[in-house]
């Protein structure tokens, strides 16, 4: 995902959440057809930070490397991980301890796995990691692994109870996005993890977040006046673009279990069915009923096939967006072909450009300002914990 950067760049990403702008939290957007965005669990996330889940491949944002930066490419606060776990050196050689202290022990194998995951996902995002930066990145990863263990050692039973609720809700949300529980488990395994490992990682992140909330965040206060001041000084961040509300029927040309393209013969069958249903839609048949009976888009099917669409440079379905904005209210499109299949789109309404009212964003502004305060205090707090735990770093990774 696009990185949350310091200052206004981060606020731009926060303030332009399509579902928030449209005021339709219950509906999806068309960044990726049939895939809703998911809240990231992490202790440096901005309000409403989202992680996209391409083709329902569940992506985990690891707390331990959530703030690593490459010196010449200051592009990432959040790193998407596919968790293709390497063969650990610990299986072949002695697993060297890199850092230790009270409640802390970080081994070489942990660092190696994190670095490989980091590098693989940067490459997948088209941002390969130069070898010259390896030592610096590994040193940063080590610091984050130490911090994670320190926070986990502070967790109370209440923290763990709160974290379990957060983690369970997050996992339940992800499972809803999958065609079936079996499909969900297959995709977790395909990403290089077991379901138990996935659950454990999510829970660990949630525990750390709960500890930081209790130790630092709860002591911070952001007033309405402070939030209003930010709102007034940054009007462009709260301008809502033109939106199009539409419903659609999707005839998917991808296998629902594997995500692979269907054979030419099956795609032809899908197109022929789509053409028949298009005729019925053009004749004025109940569109919601057609969605419910024929659409392959599971997340929107029970909501009338609704999406709220905004034009975006990162639009993964430009054909869908172009069609949505070309229609008058109640008009039905011709067949629209995207990477997901064939769509029949019916326009509901066009929402003009406007500025979001302060009341609608006040809570998110306060949340972000609170998070900024936490992030300012976090480095010194971690150093305090390291000193109290007598943490020793046994390897100088920053020096080749």
In short:
With 400 residues, the chain is an alpha+beta fold. 46% of the residues lie in helices and 12% in strands. The chain has a four-stranded antiparallel β-sheet. Strands 4-3-11 form a three-stranded antiparallel β-sheet.
Structural summary, described in words:
This protein folds into 2 domains: 32-227 and 360-393, Orthogonal Bundle (Triger factor/SurA peptide-binding fold); 242-352, Roll (Chitinase A, domain 3). Strand 8 and strand 9 (341-351) form a beta hairpin. The chain has helices at residues 8-15, 18-22, 108-124, 134-154, 157-177, 181-190, 195-215, 224-233, 264-282, 287-294, 298-301, 318-326, 358-388, and strands spanning 38-39, 50-51, 97-101, 104-107, 239-240, 243-252, 306-310, 336-338, 341-351, 354-355, 392-393. Helix 8 packs across helix 13. The chain is built from 13 helices and 11 strands. The protein starts with 7 loop residues before the first helix and ends in a 7-residue tail after the last strand. Strands 7-6-9-8 form a 4-stranded antiparallel sheet. A 3-stranded antiparallel sheet has the order 4-3-11. It is α+β, with helices and mostly antiparallel strands.
Task: Please outline the helices and strands.
Blueprint: H1 8-15, H2 18-22, E1 38-39, E2 50-51, E3 97-101, E4 104-107, H3 108-124, H4 134-154, H5 157-177, H6 181-190, H7 195-215, H8 224-233, E5 239-240, E6 243-252, H9 264-282, H10 287-294, H11 298-301, E7 306-310, H12 318-326, E8 336-338, E9 341-351, E10 354-355, H13 358-388, E11 392-393
Antiparallel strand pairs: 1-2, 3-4, 3-11, 5-10, 6-7, 6-9, 8-9
């Amino acid at each position: 995902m696009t990185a949350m950067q310091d200052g206004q760049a981060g606020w731009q990403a926060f303030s332009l959440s399509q579902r928030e702008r449209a005021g339709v939290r219950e509906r999806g957007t068309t960044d990726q057809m049939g895939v809703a965005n998911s809240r990231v669990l992490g202790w440096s996330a901005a309000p409403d930070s989202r992680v996209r889940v391409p083709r329902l491949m569940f992506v985990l944002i690891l707390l331990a490397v959530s703030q690593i930066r490459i010196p010449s490419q200051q592009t990432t606060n959040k790193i998407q991980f596919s968790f293709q776990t390497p063969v650990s050196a610990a299986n072949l050689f002695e697993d060297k301890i890199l850092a230790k202290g009270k409640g802390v022990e970080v081994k070489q194998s942990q660092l190696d796995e994190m670095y490989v995951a980091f590098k693989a996902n940067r490459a997948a995002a088209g941002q390969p990691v130069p070898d010259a930066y390896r030592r610096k990145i590994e040193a940063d990863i080590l610091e984050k692994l130490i911090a994670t263990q320190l926070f986990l050692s502070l967790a109370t039973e209440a923290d763990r109870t709160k974290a379990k609720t957060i983690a369970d809700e997050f996992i339940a949300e992800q499972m809803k996005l999958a065609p079936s529980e079996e499909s969900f488990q297959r995709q977790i395994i395909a990403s290089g993890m077991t379901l138990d490992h996935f659950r454990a990682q999510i829970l660990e992140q949630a525990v750390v977040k709960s500890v930081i909330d209790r130790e630092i965040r709860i002591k911070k206060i952001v007033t309405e006046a402070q939030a209003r001041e930010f709102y007034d000084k940054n009007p462009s961040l709260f301008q809502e673009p033109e939106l199009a509300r539409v419903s659609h029927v999707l005839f998917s040309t991808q296998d629902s279990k594997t995500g692979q393209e269907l054979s030419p013969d099956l795609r032809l069958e899908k197109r022929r069915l789509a053409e028949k249903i298009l005729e019925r839609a053009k004749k004025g048949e109940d569109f919601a009923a057609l969605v419910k009976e024929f659409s392959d888009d599971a997340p929107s099917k029970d909501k009338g096939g609704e999406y709220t669409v905004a034009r975006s440079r990162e639009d993964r379905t430009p054909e869908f967006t172009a069609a949505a904005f070309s229609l008058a209210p109640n008009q039905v499109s011709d067949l629209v072909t995207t990477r997901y299949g064939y769509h029949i789109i019916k326009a509901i309404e066009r929402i003009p450009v406007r500025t979001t009212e302060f009341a609608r964003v006040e809570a998110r502004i306060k949340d972000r300002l609170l998070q900024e305060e936490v992030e300012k205090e976090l480095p010194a707090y971690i150093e305090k914990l390291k000193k109290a735990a007598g943490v020793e770093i046994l390897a100088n990774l920053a020096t080749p």
